[in-house]
Amino acid sequence: MPTARAERELLAPLEDVWRFLAEPHHLADWWPGLAAVRPDRRGLAPGARWQVRTREASLLRRAEDEDTLLVHEVRAPELLAFELVRARIRAALTLAPAGRGRTRARLEVRGPLLLAFARSLPKEALARLHALCRTAETA
User: Fold this and answer.
1) What is the residue-wise DSSP string for the chain?
2) Whole-angstrom Cα distance, residue 70 to residue 22?
3) Are the beta carbons of 43 and 24 closer than 8 angstroms?
4) Which pTM value belongs to this model?
C-alpha cells in the first residue's frame, strides 16, 4: 500500500499538543479536507467510531460527503492511529519531546490511492497542526 510520511517540530510541549489532539472536534482543524467531526460517546479511545464530513471534492468523493473514522490505537501522549474507512486511508501520528517546550511530530499515511497530489497530505496536516500548536513560541 502506498505510504507518505512527514515530520515537523511543533512549537509546544508534548502535553499541550496531546491536549489539543485529545479533543475529537479539533481533528477537522488540522486534517486536510475535513469540515466536521461527530465523535461517538467514547471520544478518543480505541474502537471509537466518529462520523466525519468532508468539505472538498476529490477524485473519489464529492464535497460534503461523509465517512467513518475508526480509532485504532491511542497511547497518550505519544500515539494516535486511525482509519478513514470509506477513503481507505490509515494514519499514525507519533509524538515525542523535542527539547525545551517543543514536540517532534511524525505522521505516516497509507492508502491504496495516494496519488501524487495526495502524497502531500501528511506534510499539510502537520503544517496545520504546527500553526495551531504554538504555545512555546518566542517573540
Assistant:
1) --EEEEEEEESS-HHHHHHHHTSGGGHHHHSTTEEEEE--TT-SSTT-EEEEEE-S--SS--TT-EEEEEEEEEETTTEEEEEETTTTEEEEEEEEE-STT-EEEEEEEE-TT--GGGGGHHHHHHHHHHHH--TT---
2) 15
3) yes
4) 0.90
β-strand 34-38 against 79-84: which pairing, if any?
Answer: unpaired
C-alpha cell at 73: 490505537
pLDDT profile of the chain (139 residues), mean per 10: 94 97 97 95 97 73 80 98 94 96 97 72 96 80
Give the cell for residue 100: 525545551
Locate 26 and state its grid cell: 479539533
Nearest CA to 53 among 43, 44, 62, 64?
Answer: 64
Q: Which residues of 48-71 are buried (b: 16+ CB within 10 A; e: fewer)?
A: bebebbbeeeeeeeeeebebebbb
Residue 37 corresponds to which cell in the numbers above?
467531526
Q: Is it true that the peptide bond before 77 is cis, omega within 30 degrees of 0?
A: yes
